[in-house]
């Protein structure tokens, strides 16, 4: 996208001239975060068009249904009650979540009070939504003054196991096994490996060191965990939306229960905004408008998120599951084929590393990639302020360069510009602002889903591969497999 061609939107720099108030209309302050969507092609006409599309798509009704705890996950006949975990849902869901939080809190208190003896580390086992959120929280917030060495294990790979336990002392480690279903092969295999590790180190009661977090307590009991150490969360809490529930216990152990409560409060503030702000000033909805515009009108197949803060380096991984597992679908919530493109591929990295690796394509490549910069104003490192100043200025410079470009007689040195970017600037990184940031992304994902007519709360696409893996591992007869797969199995002597 080099210039304003027929059927192409105006150039970004022109939009600023044409709409002198666009910065104030497209930037919003919320819960310690500043969102700047002014470097997107959303102009007043487009916003109005998308507001009316949201009306036609039944956005208000869908949002009401979400917060009222109605069945919004049609294919599985479930509500999506993650908002109740931060006090924003239907009263009965909020009460149940609060009671479950009290149990989690009691366990955190018990660990701190020494009920499990001397505890110096936590081995958190889980995969997908049962690990990505907690790992993001601990990595972002548990760096300074973390009470415990919290390690995460997800992949079914002995290398990952060895890495995860390398700094842990089995005698003083708690295992937190998280699985909504408690049937996930990787998690159960890793839990068994952890039990062997404890046993091998002479821990007298290995099961007594395991806390299970699940929506299927019976399955956890069958796996050998005593009910006193099973923390239940609701069936209506989707895995990738679950960090607010007892799934967040490892984070609460790392940075304390009061910090965990602040995380929930930050999210609740964004919930209130999403529920009550006018559509044209509703940040998750506005962001979804821009998302749909780039995917549907400009054919963007990817979007990139760069964390200009090492503490947020896991954000792109977290967002990949949130956005791609939620909205990477081809049919509507009622099963009708969708004609247009749905979720783009979410990818990203860390600034300024990414500048020296992938930004060439972003500035001069032939594809348009909407770029998101996420940065934090207040630093929390041991170096002088100049270091952090350089980091932030780099982020802002990239956004400016993408938008304005630079003409040159030498085509090699010419930058077309007119490339969209968005910026989210946190005043500081603390539990409250991180909770707000994650809740913003959840609601943006939901808003995208409503605009497309998708159910963002199921994920049948991940099942087929799991079924085939199970079948392959249970039977030595692979004769019904395709020749390529059969040859791979034979070559690896499996
Ligand atoms: O395979 C995808 C998935 O079902 C995710 O949706 C989920 O977060 C992950 O597996 C883990 O599932 P569980 O929490 O049941 O172990």
Describe the structure.
This protein is of the alpha/beta class. Helices cover 45% and strands 12% of the residues. Helix 8 (185-200) links the parallel strand 5 (173-178) and strand 6. Helix 11 packs parallel to helix 16 and helix 13 (315-327) packs parallel to helix 16. Bound molecules: 6-O-phosphono-beta-D-fructofuranose (F6P). 6-O-phosphono-beta-D-fructofuranose is lined by residues 127-130, 179-181, 184, 187, 239-240, 325, 459, 462. Residues 127-130, 179-181, 184, 187, 239-240, 325, 459, 462 line the site of 6-O-phosphono-beta-D-fructofuranose.
Task: Describe the secondary-structure layout.
Layout: H1 12-18, H2 22-26, E1 27-30, E2 33-36, H3 44-56, H4 59-67, H5 91-112, E3 121-125, H6 132-141, E4 149-153, H7 158-165, E5 173-178, H8 185-200, E6 210-214, H9 217-222, E7 230-232, H10 249-255, H11 257-276, H12 283-297, E8 302-308, H13 315-327, E9 345-350, H14 359-364, E10 371-376, H15 385-404, E11 421-426, H16 431-452, H17 463-474, H18 483-491
Parallel strand pairs: 3-4, 3-5, 5-6, 6-7, 8-9, 8-10, 10-11
Antiparallel strand pairs: 1-2, 2-11
Helix pairs in contact: 6-10, 10-11, 11-16, 12-16, 13-16
The structure holds 6-O-phosphono-beta-D-fructofuranose (F6P).
């Amino acid at each position: 996208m080099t210039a304003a061609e027929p059927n192409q939107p105006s150039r970004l720099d022109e939009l600023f001239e044409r709409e002198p108030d666009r910065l104030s209309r497209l930037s919003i302050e919320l819960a310690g975060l500043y969102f700047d969507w002014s470097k997107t092609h959303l102009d007043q006409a487009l916003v109005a068009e998308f507001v009316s599309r949201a009306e036609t798509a039944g956005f208000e009704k869908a949002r009401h249904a979400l917060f009222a705890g109605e069945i919004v996950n049609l294919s599985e006949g479930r509500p999506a009650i993650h908002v109740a975990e931060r006090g924003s849902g239907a009263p009965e869901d909020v009460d149940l979540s609060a009671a479950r939080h009290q149990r989690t809190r009691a366990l955190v208190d018990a660990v701190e009070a020494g009920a499990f003896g001397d505890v110096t580390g936590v081995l958190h086992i889980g995969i997908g939504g049962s690990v990505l959120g907690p790992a993001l929280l601990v990595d972002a917030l548990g760096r300074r003054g973390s009470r415990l060495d919290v390690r995460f294990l997800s992949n079914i790979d002995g290398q990952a196991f060895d890495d995860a336990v390398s700094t842990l002392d089995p005698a003083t480690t708690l295992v937190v096994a998280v699985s909504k279903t408690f049937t996930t092969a990787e998690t159960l295999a890793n839990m068994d490996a952890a039990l062997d590790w404890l046993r091998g180190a002479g821990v007298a009661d290995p099961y007594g060191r395991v806390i299970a977090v699940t929506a299927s307590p019976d399955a956890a009991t069958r796996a050998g965990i005593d009910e006193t150490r099973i923390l239940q969360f609701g069936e209506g809490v989707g895995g990738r939306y679950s960090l607010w529930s007892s799934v967040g216990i490892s984070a609460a152990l790392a940075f304390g229960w009061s910090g965990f409560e602040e995380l929930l409060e930050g999210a609740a503030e964004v919930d209130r905004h999403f529920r009550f702000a006018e559509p044209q000033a509703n940040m998750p909805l506005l962001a979804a408008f821009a998302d749909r515009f780039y995917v549907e009108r400009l054919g963007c197949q990817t979007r990139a998120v760069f964390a200009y803060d090492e503490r947020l380096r896991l954000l792109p991984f977290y967002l990949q599951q949130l956005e791609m597992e939620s909205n990477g679908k081809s049919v509507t919530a009622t099963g009708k084929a969708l004609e247009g493109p749905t979720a783009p591929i979410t990818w990203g990295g860390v600034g300024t590393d990414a500048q020296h690796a992938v930004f060439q394509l972003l500035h001069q490549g032939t594809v348009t990639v909407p770029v998101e910069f996420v940065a934090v104003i207040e630093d929390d490192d041991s170096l002088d302020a100049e270091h952090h100043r350089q980091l932030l200025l780099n982020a802002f410079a990239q956004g400016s360069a993408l938008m304005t470009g630079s003409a040159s007689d030498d085509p090699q040195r010419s930058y077309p510009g007119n490339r969209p970017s968005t910026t989210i600037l946190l005043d500081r990184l603390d539990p409250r602002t991180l909770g707000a940031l994650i809740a913003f992304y959840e609601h943006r994902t939901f808003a995208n889903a409503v605009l497309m007519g998708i159910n963002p709360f199921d994920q049948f696409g991940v099942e087929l591969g799991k079924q085939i893996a199970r079948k392959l591992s249970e039977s030595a007869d692979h004769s019904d497999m395709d020749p390529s797969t059969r040859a791979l199995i034979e070559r690896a002597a499996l």
